[in-house]
Protein: COBRA-like protein
Organism: Punica granatum
Amino acid sequence: MESLSKLSGLTLLLLFLLSCSTFTSIEAYDALDPNGNVTIKWDVISWTPDGYVAVVTMFNFQQYRHIQAPGWTLGWTWAKKEVIWTMMGGQTTEQGDCSRYKGNTPHCCKKDPTVVDLLPGTPYNQQIANCCKGGVISSWAQDPANAASSFQVSVGAAGTSNKTVRLPKNFTLKAPGPGYTCGPAKIVKPTKYVSADKRRVTQALMTWNVTCTYSQFLAQKTPSCCVSLSSFYNDTIVNCPTCTCGCKNNATDPGSCIDPNTPHLQSVVSGAPGNQPLVQCTSHMCPIRVHWHVKLNYKEYWRVKITITNFNYRMNYSQWNLVVQHPNFDNLTKLFSFNYKSLTPYAGLNDTAMLWGVKFYNDFLSEAGPFGNVQSELLFQKDKSTFTFEKGWAFPRRIYFNGDNCVMPPPDAYPWLPNSSPQLNVAKLIHFTPMLASILLLFLHI
C-alpha cells in the first residue's frame, strides 16, 4: 500500500510538471490559424563592390491578426562587420558609430540595427512597392492586397557572392510590442519575378527566409478582451468575469482607470501620464468587451446581436476584426453591416467565422465614449438535428478580437432556459402556439 501511495503521488507530480511545461506551447499555438506566421524574405537583387542590394519583404500570413499602429519594428544582428549604406522604403532608428568611414557616411553602422517603415506621404524617390504605410500590415484574410511591407537595403562590408555572404541572425519582430518569436534565417530557392507583360521571368541572386510566430502569452501578461452574454429567454446578463484584465486599484495605483462620470473627462484623459492603455473603470477592466445576445427565435431561424465596446480612452482600432467559433456558422443566412469570411482551419469543419467592419462605415472602432462601439446582427438557419437553446448551445465557443483570445464567462454562468421548464424546447414552442390557439377556440365554441 505504501509503494502504491508513492506511485500515485509520483504520477500526480509528473502530470503537474507536464501541464506546466506545456502551458506556454498551448498558448503559442492557435488552433483556429494553425499555419499563421509572418515570413520575412530577403531577396538579393544585385551585387556591389563591397556587398549587395536586397529587398526585404514581410508577408503577414496570419488569417486575422494584423499589425496595427504604430507599426512593426524589425531587428537583427550582422554576422560580420556589415554596414547599411543606403535604404529606401524604411530607415534605421539609430545611425551608430560611423567614425571609421571618411567621405561617404553609411546610413547605419550598428551591429544590431533596428528598422522601421516610413510614413505615408514619403517623397516618391524614397519609396518602393509595399512601403511607407507607417508599419501597418493587414491580415491575410481581411485584406490580402495590403498584407505585406517592404524596404530596400544596400549592405556594405559584406560578401559579394552567394558563397561569401553570411546571413544575419537573432531576428526580432515587434508589432508594435512583444509577442513574436523569430527562427533562424534559412536559404531557400531564389524568388522569381514575372514581368508586367508576363513574357519574361527573372529571379533574385539569392534568397533567405525568416519565420516569426506569435504568442499571446508572450505579448501580454493579462488578457485584452472579454465576452459577456445575454438572451431573450432569460433576464440574466452574464458580465465578463471580475478582474478579467486586471483589477482597478486607484488607491495604490492612481490613474489606473477613469470613471466615465468624471467632470471634464477629456482633459483628465489627455493629462494622464504614460502611454499605457487608459481604460474605463469597470468590474472586468478590459479594453475591449464583446457582447453576444441571443435576440430572437423564429420557426426556421434564430437571430443574434453582437456588440463590440471599446473601454480604452487611448486607443482607436482601425480595421478591427472579430473571429467567432460556433457550430451554427455552417448555416449563417444573413449578416447585417459586417463583412464575413468563413475560416476553415481543418477540412470539413465550417464552424469559424471572421467578421469585420464595412469600409468607411464601421471599420473604425473609436476610443471609449458614446461612439466607442460597433454592432451587427446575424441570422442563422436552424438545423433540426442539432439546434437547441439548452445548456448554453446558442453561445459561442471562442471569440478573438484582433487576433487575441477573449476570456469567456464560466459555462455554469451562462443564461439557461427557465428552471420551471428545464426540458422546454423554445423552438418547438413557436410550432405549437397556433395549434394551442385552435384548440382553445374549438373549446370555447363547444
